[in-house]
Design a protein that fits this description.
Length: about 190
């Protein structure tokens, strides 16, 4: 078969089957543009295999099977995306609720300046000595990590690790006063 008759034959197959395949795809993927893309991809695959197809007897079966598989792939992909989006929204909702609760509790508690100092000192006293010293130098004295590492003759990585440990422990100690914690230390 020469290329002109090959092109004409392919064109006839396309014209004959495109509308049916598009309707079939749209029944499952619901969005017309998605159905069109699936059918176009199917015909692209067909064109790439056109010469290697020994017989065109099962052409319609090939086309419907290809469209069906592409619909399944698209729907699976959409389900995975939707599940991920739902998970993110769920976590966001939980964070919002926790923030609301934290702010509400915080606003209901009339905390005096002296009580705030006491809360912070008590929380800081739960930290190991070296960790507390590094955290105070960093967050309360405003020193850079490099300064602290030189002053205490330790590595910057150690300073970073100790500050991280302090944050974790303080977050737990001040969990009921999260707005205060965030305000003071971030």
């Amino acid at each position: 078969m020469d290329s002109t008759s090959r092109n004409i034959h392919f064109e006839n197959v396309y014209i004959l089957h495109y509308p049916k395949l598009k309707r079939f795809a749209k029944e499952y993927v619901l969005i017309e543009e998605d159905a069109e893309n699936i059918v176009q991809d199917t015909f692209t695959d067909l064109w790439e295999r056109w010469c290697s197809l020994s017989s065109h007897n099962n052409l319609l079966a090939f086309l419907f099977l290809s469209v069906k598989n592409k619909c399944i792939d698209l729907l699976r992909h959409r389900i995975v995306l939707q599940n991920a989006e739902n998970k993110i929204m769920e976590e966001y909702q939980l964070t919002l609720c926790a923030n609301y609760y934290s702010l509400d509790v915080f606003s209901q508690e009339k905390i005096e300046e002296k009580e705030i100092e006491e809360l912070i000192n008590n929380a800081l006293n739960t930290l190991p000595e070296k960790c507390r010293e590094i955290f105070i130098k960093s967050k309360m004295e405003g020193k850079k990590q490099k300064e602290i590492s030189e002053e205490l003759n330790i590595s910057i990585k150690t300073v970073e690790a100790q500050i991280s440990i302090a944050y974790k422990k303080l977050r737990i100690e001040l969990k009921d006063f999260m707005p205060l914690f965030l305000f003071l230390f971030y």
